[in-house]
Design a protein that fits this description.
heterodimer, A: 144 residues, mainly alpha, Helicase, Ruva Protein, domain 3, 3 domains, flat, B: 674 residues, Four Helix Bundle (Hemerythrin (Met), subunit A), 6-stranded antiparallel beta sheet, 4-stranded antiparallel beta sheet, 20 helices, 12 strands, 62% helix
Chain lengths: 144, 674
């Protein structure tokens, strides 16, 4: 197989796979989360009252089991995730909701990591450019 | 008697640690190995004696010693008695000190007769030992004796071991969670060896900075220590996840608990360090960065201990809280400020790095990978500390948990996976786009079809699809490279398969670890994205079907053991049609002496694809409520962890007098032409 046919085969196979992925993700029917999936997700995002810093999901304590049962009841009764979180927030305080995307304090939390990544990338870029220039001055060689 | 001997041995160890510092400084000039001999041997002997005495006290049920009374009982099984020697705060500090003493001894053995760098490194290790044994001699004395008793608990203790002591008749026993599974006896020591082992590269780095010695000597001498510490840390983290999965009963293995994060943080920076050290050793670059990374890694181990043990952050792992928090914080501040000041003082001497020829090169991808690993570590650290920061600024209470860490860490980790694939196959200096294209085009097709396959079977989560696609990409890239190099050799494939690895076991150890990481990524994706969770109520003798499996409730059972009462149910796991039996499981609720809360212990059946994870959620006299979770490819997580560790071991097996990477360089030219 020549290099050219090989490349064409690779590109063809890649485009076909990409099509499957994009069409599947965009138009495929997503399976709805089951009631148990929702209970599990909510329990992982709500802190267990009277436990040491664990979520309702992790805590092996009886208290946590009771609150998990309560969440299951609410899900069964048709409450939305937001309503259930709200109920816990009202009873115990916002600090029991581990899903911080709702709190105004969380802004810095979400902004800082991407900033660090971009900032670090910039540092590498700038250092590389200045190193390249310094090298050019010394050797007069084009940078790679 | 044991208390007095124990306290004495701790004081001796403290004295020996001080002597290590003094002798190390006095002999920094002549680098006399002999001068360090007595302090190092004394430290080792005294530390081992302290550790042995704690174990003897526990096995003899010496309840006059507060630590023994409050953490063990006569009914505690033997293995957990042994493990109690390090399971609680004071004992864990003793274990820390012992491991540090053993490392000091092993480092001393590698010293040459005149070895200034080695002697200074030992002095730094002595300084660290002074801190830990100082803690034991003061706020965290494991041999403090009991002076007041309330029930089974010792409520007050006194440092002076020869005064009047009282002893409860029975001890309180270990925390129930700590005596529920054998892994709890193995996981903490593994982590400790990893944590403490990272003191060695830190000490050599500080020694090199003090001496104003630049260059790669300190890296060459600590390369294997770092790898060994990293292997233990990796192993310890995976064992911790396994323990969580087997014991805690919620089906998870990682909760982004502050203390889990505390173990992950130094792992991330140590991983970055292992890679950037390779770049300095092969290409002379990243010298300053390596100092920063090794200082950060060591500081993070101290920070991790502080988070675990000071009680500033409530956590399931903070089994004990105590007064040693402030001491740890001061030590952390001394380490960070001291090392960075030293670094700043020497910064001008650290030689200018040779030019990075191209960002698209092995060193370029490692540099980018380092950036991403560091940002990931920073993100985890920031999230863990965020509640403290906000509370300090505004007094507001916020909680940061799984939703944040998952959403922040997943994209960063996906980027990391992509860079692993490129870094694994890119040549040093310059990786032209033709070479990369030739080495990565087939893996790319396989990765894309892997992702497409996952979409076809019904997955709609982009992160799961991407993770699996990238993992296949990595495995295929490394696999293709390996096969290409084996086939390029003149001899038969059998012996070539071994020779290729033996010629450059450092490189192939790394690649094996990358394959392990890819397997872990696949498992993380499937167990999070494709898990099925159901709670079913099953009457006795009846069955229920969950996600292709049938569970039958056979009967309840109960066992009375010395340290706990077990109430469990026997459950049969069958295929979907409820005809072929696969296993009998016995999930249970354990109630430990002295507690009323039962601790659930799940039972797991592992098939070739799925784990069926069964826990008791409740029940009545005629039926049982079962949590039945089905996790696809959960076993791949543990296999992946072992592969990562195996990769580390392969890299360590490399002969110390290795060439300077010439082998990989030259062979890569061959297969580059295929």
């Amino acid at each position: 197989m020549s290099e050219r046919t090989r490349n064409i085969a690779v590109i063809g196979a890649s485009v076909a796979a990409l099509l499957v992925i994009v069409v599947g993700l965009a138009f495929g029917e997503a399976t709805e989360p089951t009631a148990e999936d929702r209970v599990a997700a909510l329990s992982e995002a709500i802190k267990c009252p009277f436990c040491s810093g664990e979520s309702l999901a992790e805590s092996p304590s009886g208290v946590a089991a009771e609150y998990r049962a309560l969440i299951a009841e609410r899900v069964e009764a048709g409450s939305t995730d937001e309503e259930i979180r709200q109920e816990f927030a009202e009873n115990f305080g916002d600090s029991y909701i581990l899903d911080t995307s709702t709190s105004s304090w969380s802004l810095a939390l979400w902004i800082v990591p991407p900033l660090a990544l971009v900032g670090g990338g910039l540092v590498i870029y700038v250092m590389r450019r200045s190193a390249g220039r310094r090298d050019d001055e010394h050797a007069g060689a084009p940078s790679g | 008697m044991i208390a007095a001997l124990g306290t004495f041995s701790i004081l001796v160890a403290l004295g020996a640690a001080v002597a290590m510092v003094v002798q190390g400084i006095r002999h920094a000039g002549d680098g006399s190995k002999r001068a360090m001999r007595v302090p190092v041997f004394t430290l080792l002997t005294a530390a081992l004696a302290a550790f042995a005495l704690i174990e003897i006290a526990i096995l003899n049920h010496e309840f006059s010693i507060t630590y023994v009374a409050n953490n063990t009982a006569t009914t505690t099984p033997f293995v957990f008695l042994l493990a109690s020697g390090w399971a609680a705060l004071e004992g864990s500090i003793v274990l820390w000190g012992v491991v540090l003493a053993v490392f000091s001894f092993l480092v001393w053995r590698t010293l040459r007769d005149e070895d200034s760098l080695g002697v200074l490194a030992l002095a730094v290790m002595g300084g660290v030992s002074v801190f830990w044994f100082g803690l034991m001699a003061t706020a965290g004395n494991p041999f403090a004796v009991c002076s007041a008793v309330a029930g089974d608990v010792c409520v007050a203790s006194t440092w002076w071991p020869l005064g009047d002591v009282v002893a409860p008749v029975q001890g309180r026993g270990p925390n129930p969670l700590l005596q529920n599974h054998i892994l709890m006896a193995i996981h903490p020591p593994m982590l400790y060896v990893g944590y403490v082992g990272l003191t060695v590269p830190f000490s050599f780095a500080i020694g090199a900075l003090i001496r104003g010695e630049t260059g790669r000597t300190w890296l060459d001498r600590t390369h294997r220590w770092t790898l060994v510490a990293w292997i233990f840390l990796t192993f310890g983290i995976f064992l911790g996840g396994w323990w969580s999965y087997e014991v805690l009963g919620w089906g998870g293995y990682w909760a982004w608990d502050p203390v889990e994060n505390a173990a992950l943080l130094p792992w991330l920076t140590a991983t970055a360090f292992i890679h950037s050290a390779v770049v300095q050793r092969k290409r002379g670059m990243l010298q300053a960065w390596n100092y920063i990374l090794v200082i950060a890694t060591f500081s993070l181990t101290i920070l991790g201990t502080f988070l675990t043990r000071s009680g500033v952050i409530a956590s399931v792992h903070a089994f004990t809280q105590s007064s040693i928090g402030p001491a740890l914080l001061v030590f952390l501040a001394v380490v960070v400020v001291g090392s960075l000041a030293l670094f700043a003082w020497r910064a001008k001497d650290i030689s200018q790095a040779p030019r990075l020829d191209s960002l698209s090169s092995r060193e370029g991808y490692i540099l980018m990978n380092n950036l991403v690993l560091t940002v990931l570590a920073f993100t985890v650290l920031f999230g863990t500390m965020y509640p403290l920061i906000v509370e300090a600024i505004s007094g507001a209470e916020v909680a940061v948990g799984r939703p944040f860490f998952d959403r922040a860490a997943v994209p960063i980790s996906l980027l990391l996976l992509l860079l692993i694939a490129f870094g694994s196959v890119a040549p040093w200096r310059v990786a032209s786009s033709q070479v990369l294209w030739r080495r990565l085009r087939v893996p790319m097709v396989l990765g894309l079809w892997g992702a497409a396959f996952v979409v076809v079977i019904g997955v709609r989560s982009w992160s799961v699809v991407l993770a699996i696609g990238l993992a296949v990409f990595i495995i295929a890239a490394i696999g293709e490279r390996y096969v290409g190099m084996v086939l390029a050799r003149p001899e038969g494939a059998g012996s070539a398969a071994v020779k290729v690895v033996r010629n450059d076991s450092g490189y192939w150890g790394g690649q094996l670890a990358h394959v392990g990481i890819a397997l872990v990524a696949i498992s993380l994706a499937t167990t999070n994205g494709l898990a099925v969770r159901e709670m079913v109520t099953v009457p006795r003798g009846e069955t229920a079907v969950v996600s292709g499996f049938c569970v039958r409730y056979i009967e309840p059972f109960s066992v009375s053991e010395p340290n706990r009462d077990v109430a469990g149910v026997r459950v049969e796991v069958l295929d979907e049609g409820c005809t072929t039996s696969k296993a009998i499981l016995e999930p249970r609720l354990n109630t430990y002496a002295g507690t009323t809360q039962p601790i659930g212990t799940p039972a797991v059946w592992t098939g070739w694809r799925d784990d069926v994870y069964v826990g008791i959620a409740g029940g009545s006299s005629t039926s049982v409520d079962l949590n039945v979770f089905v996790f696809p490819f959960q076993w791949l997580l543990w296999v992946g962890g072992f592969v990562v560790v195996a990769g580390g071991l392969l890299a360590v097996s490399r002969k110390p007098a290795e060439g300077r990477g010439a082998s990989e360089e030259s062979t890569s030219q061959h297969s580059g032409a295929t």
